[in-house]
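Protein Record: Sequence and Backbone Structure Tokens
======================================================
Scope: a single protein chain, as residues and as a discrete description of its fold.
Tokens: labelled as protein backbone structure tokens, with as many entries as the chain has residues.
Position: the record begins directly beneath this header, with no further notes in between.
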Amino acid sequence: MSTGAISIVVVVAVVLAAALIIRVVRAGAGRRERALRRRFGPEYELNVAQHAGDTKAAERELEERLRLYGDLRTEPLPGELRERYVAEWAGMQEMFIESPEHTVTGADQLLARLAHDRGYPSGHYEEQVAALSVHHADHVQGYRQIHDTAARAREGRADTEELREAVVHARPFFEDLVRPPHHGAPTGSETARQHHHGERRSGSGLRRWLPGTGTGTGTGTGMGTGHTRFGHTKKGGAW
């Protein structure tokens, strides 16, 4: 074989090897993206948006969260403490009409305490949210929203509708954290209905102990008569 032929063979071999390496790298990147999308769900897209569309940077951050908090061991709430939180959240809901700003700031503080009691970091808000995003990716944005809205409320920059939406969107996150360990997570369709209508799920197995899921008539929360159902104003207007 001539020197020229050998050179051609070498060049072709190098090109084929490079193409194979690129293909392997892309396949690995695709598997990584799919795994992160499955793990983080809406949190994946949100993080990409926060990185101005830089997928690689977003994935590096999510992988770092997994490294730091993926093996975090948390504990379910004892029954008595769970009931206390459920009652406190119901009280927040009832307080909204009279004092929406205090409701939002109080709910934000309640969620921070609840996350701490479940075993999530509590020294810094950013660290707590990062850990929560690994284990409660479907609903952690509701915590961010009510935290940011509470800060705006303290400065007098949040209107009533913004405050209302913050509490409504934070409720699935509260339910996710307070849920007993033997209850499964809600399905995607149930979550979508709750976000769209701001109403309680009826088939999630939570009716027995969550406020607002009673089967009685009128405006009761399921905790007895005379309670204002969260999602309606005193004038009867829907949230």
Residues 186-239 have pLDDT under 50 and may be disordered.
